[in-house]
């Protein structure tokens, strides 16, 4: 998705402090999103994600820094300019934010009504959007009659009403069950391709990033601590926080019964359980047997599987290493130097 076109969104050196003397919600944050890209921002609660995404359409104003969207210098626009620019930026919310007394069609038409679009044009635009989100049959339903997934489809349709080129998704699937989450993510991916959208999303779930993002930035305490192609960040996370996020998705804990069946370490030895993740042509099996030979460490392979991100495969193994503590450590460091990612497995998880 990288290309030479100017970025659709550029955030540069953003700082934001809500209260004098309070902590920085954004501390020198810079990201740039290419046209057509799905860019994810992931972080724990309080990391600054909402503040950041709300700075894109200036629902929140940064104290300093630059915000450029589709070529507009957002902070330099007057009210009329800002209204125009905002029509090019749709936003989808976690809790849908629908009007309960308006039908699906009326909810979708709402932003057009606010923008003064004539009724006939509103109707034809709504008729155009409903099939895009699979809601043709529910035009006259009220939000209370819809499932969570359908409500979010309305939220997405409303965000698309003014034909934006940029879609901001603020935890758009966090209120949905896993199956509905998958459906909505597939819909967003499909709409990106059909409507040529650029998507910036925030989430606390690495599963969402793995499912649809091209690139990701990881936030912590108001800063971007790591960013890159999703495949690279998943297979070679550099920061401990990123490693924890990644292990949520690809390093599920090994069942206690499995661990109980593993031999105990002998006197003077240690047993170290880890996930070993590899990408590209490296054969994990060869690495494991070489590590065994060269470091005198026994590797017991507990489980192994192949997964993929954006069509690129990678392998993940759970291993138990047995040997003298210093040798086990040295062998694992050697694997990391080869580019494999080693994450400890909690024995009590
Ligand atoms: N309106 C506000 N007034 C004061 N402080 C705020 C406000 N909004 C956010 N904050 C503070 O700014 C920091 C970043 O919050 P933000 O909501 O951007 O993080 P987040 O990563 O989106 O977390 P969450 O998922 O919980 O919303 C936090 O310390 C938060 O308490």
Structural description of this entry:
There is one protein chain. This protein has about 350 residues and is an alpha/beta fold. The chain folds into 2 domains: about 10-240, 3-Layer(aba) Sandwich (Rossmann fold); about 250-345, ACT domain (Alpha-Beta Plaits, 2-Layer Sandwich). A hairpin with a 2-residue loop joins β12 (about 300-310) and β13 (about 310-325). The protein has helices spanning about 50-55, 80-85, 105-115, 120-130, 150-160, 180-195, 205-210, 230-235, 240-250, 255-260, 285-295, 325-335, and strands at about 10-15, 25-35, 40-45, 65-70, 70-75, 90-95, 165-170, 200-205, 215-220, 225-230, 270-280, 300-310, 310-325, 340-345. The strands form 3 sheets. A 6-stranded mixed sheet has the order 6-7-8-3-9-10, sandwiched between helices. Strands 2-1-4-5 form a 4-stranded antiparallel sheet, with helices on one face. Strands 12-13-11-14 form a 4-stranded antiparallel sheet, sandwiched between helices. About 35% of the residues lie in helices and about 30% in strands. The structure holds adenosine-5'-triphosphate. Adenosine-5'-triphosphate binds near residues 18, 45, 48, 49 and 51. Adenosine-5'-triphosphate binds next to α1.
